[in-house]
Design brief:
Blueprint lengths: L2 H27 L7 H11 L9 H24 L16 H12 L9 H4 L2 H31 L9 H26 L10 E4 L6 E4 L4 H10 L20 H26 L2 H26 L4 H5 L17 H13 L15 H12 L10 H21 L4 E2 L2 E2 L2 H27 L1 H4 L6 H16 L14 H30 L16 H32 L6
Antiparallel strand pairs: 1-2, 3-4
Length: about 550
């Protein structure tokens, strides 16, 4: 499937998804979809709650932390004892402590960073009962936080922002499970492997070589890992593996699954706050930045790799190093940009083999804060944080108290938004500085010079943004990187979620102020440009010096930037 046809199919499919899935999700979270109420009620009785028992932002945040902590502890234990558990035809032993901590932290935070080879480290039980389950749960948690923040804008004088337990239950029952099930059927029908029969042994009679081919329950895992913007695949080479991504159809389906909910949530936002134009404004900001990044990354990969050209090899089909010939250079760039800008992290080509500028496209897409369109839920609540900062700047320019959707944005809201926007860059840059300052950190890269720095920066940016994609070339399965990565992922997830929920509580308690003649509009082109500017400026000011030391220096070392 050619690049232009792929883009056309995606645009049409995502346009339909934005309208109808977005509306459906609004109906789900406003309680108008109840055809599985019989499945909801037993869970509510078990934990002693109901849809009528709403929570303040503090109780909502407390429930989220307790829920995530339980999954972190239980998952860590199961990985440590996987050798004694069923569904282990490969006879996998226990996962080592530091790796088990990093892995379970990764899946709890929706990062899905993998310092291991799935088919050589994890049993079927671990892949299904620990990792795949968490891919549903962590995605639901992110969406729940986004919906709570939306309620902050839509409600007035309200001490509550919803019920965490109800939100995650409905999200999984009505949204994630149905879509993932249908997508899983399509993936398996296209040839994605789905079996518990263990490995297959093939003997080649022509050359006498015997090969062992890993297999497992990869097909349905691929559905939720993309729908939930998880990205943690069954196989070590992720979606470059033909047993998990067998055809051009599955390649496009994976991209659609990844982008569908993050984009559609902007319509959900618009419908819940009573202004589709406001949702469309956020969508426009997402699409513009996403399109620019796809454009220059694809162009960079359609040119010669300067390192390969320096070796005297000149290609007429772009940079094919590390690419699947099934997908080509530009479609691979589209895929990897889609994954790095959605906090997904799955790849169908080797990011480490991209040109320096192409690799910079993947890296800087994450540095923008994962908002274009970002992860399931996390993209929406993070871009709303940027929108509040943009409103504050706009209010300063016209000399009025900033307002967004009729809610006055005052000192408390600006401080919370500023904290949520800056915590990720601070965490990533501080931990990167620690890594390059210590021998244990510098021992990780397999390369030297600026490319080695890019590998360290990419790894900690990926984990701090809960993305999970790897630049490769970095030996991450060490006590140092497993531990520092776990800290990076926890802070990158919860140090943004908690301020977002506090922001929801502050906004929900406010009265809505009617718009006047001097009200700064937040649903037009000027506001879209202001939001884009805030996103670019915050990402540029905080990360440009670090990027200059990595991919920019590497590209210039070949004599030219483009």
């Amino acid at each position: 499937m050619g690049l232009f046809l792929t883009i056309l199919v995606l645009v049409v499919a995502l346009g339909i998804t934005w309208r109808y899935l977005g509306s459906y999700m609004a109906n789900v979270f406003e309680g108008r979809v109840r055809y599985l109420a019989w499945a909801e009620r037993p869970f509510y009785r078990l934990i002693g709650t109901s849809p009528e028992q709403e929570q303040s932002w503090k109780r909502y945040a407390g429930s989220l932390i307790i829920f995530s902590a339980i999954f972190l502890g239980v998952g860590y234990l199961l990985l440590r004892i996987q050798g004694s558990l069923p569904l282990n035809p490969q006879h996998m032993g226990a996962v080592k402590p530091a790796l088990a901590l990093n892995t379970q932290t990764s899946f709890v935070t929706n990062t899905n960073w993998q310092n291991y080879g799935g088919e050589t480290t994890m049993s079927y039980f671990s892949q299904i009962g620990v990792l795949t389950v968490q891919q549903f749960v962590s995605a639901a948690v992110g969406i729940a936080v986004a919906i709570a923040l939306v309620r902050g804008f839509s409600r007035r004088n309200s001490p509550t922002i919803g019920n965490f337990w109800v939100d995650i239950t409905r999200c999984m029952l009505y949204i994630l499970l149905p879509i993932a099930f249908v997508a899983g059927l399509i993936l398996v029908g296209e040839g994605a492997v789905m079996t518990l029969a263990g490995t297959a042994t093939i003997h080649d009679a022509l050359n006498g070589v015997t090969q062992t081919i890993p297999r497992g329950p990869a097909g349905f895992m691929g559905a939720i890992m993309q729908l939930g913007t998880n990205g943690g695949g069954f196989f070590n080479v992720d979606l470059a593996h033909p047993l998990q991504n067998p055809t051009a159809i599955t390649n496009v389906l994976y991209i659609w699954l990844t982008l569908s909910i993050p984009f559609a949530l902007t319509y959900t936002f618009g419908k819940m706050v009573g202004s589709i134009r406001h949702g469309a404004a956020l969508l426009s900001a997402m699409v513009i930045i996403f399109g620019v990044w796809v454009g220059f990354t694809s162009y960079a990969e359609h040119t010669n790799n300067p390192a390969v050209a320096a070796a005297g090899v000149h290609s007429t089909v772009g940079n094919t190093e590390g690419k699947e010939v099934r997908f080509g250079d530009t479609s691979s760039a589209l895929f990897n940009v889609s994954m790095t800008q959605t906090s997904d992290g799955a790849i169908d080509s080797a990011s480490d083999s991209y040109t320096p500028v192409g690799g910079m496209g993947l890296l800087t897409g994450m540095m923008l804060g994962e908002v274009t369109p970002g992860g399931t839920g996390s993209g929406l609540y993070t871009i709303l944080v940027y929108a509040i900062i943009a409103v504050f700047i706009g209010g300063l320019m016209i000399g009025r108290t900033p307002e967004y959707l009729g809610k006055k944005i005052q000192a408390k809201e600006v401080k919370l938004a500023g904290l949520a926007a800056l915590v990720m860059p601070l965490v990533v840059l501080i931990l990167t500085a620690v890594a390059v300052s210590l021998h244990a950190g510098r021992a990780g890269p397999l390369n030297s010079g600026p490319h080695a720095f890019s590998e360290i920066l990419y790894a900690l940016t990926s984990q701090g943004n809960n993305n999970g994609s790897a630049f490769a070339g970095l030996t991450g399965n060490t006590a140092f990187y497993n531990t520092i990565g776990a800290v990076d992922m926890l802070l990158g997830r919860f140090a943004i979620m908690i301020p977002a929920l506090a922001l929801a509580g502050a906004l929900a308690g406010k009265q809505i102020v009617p718009a006047g003649l001097g009200t700064f509009r937040t649903d037009n082109g000027m506001f879209i440009g202001l939001v884009i500017g805030v996103i670019i400026i915050i990402g540029g000011l905080t990360f440009f010096p670090a990027v200059s030391l990595g991919p920019i220096v590497e590209q210039l070392s070949h004599g030219k930037f483009w």
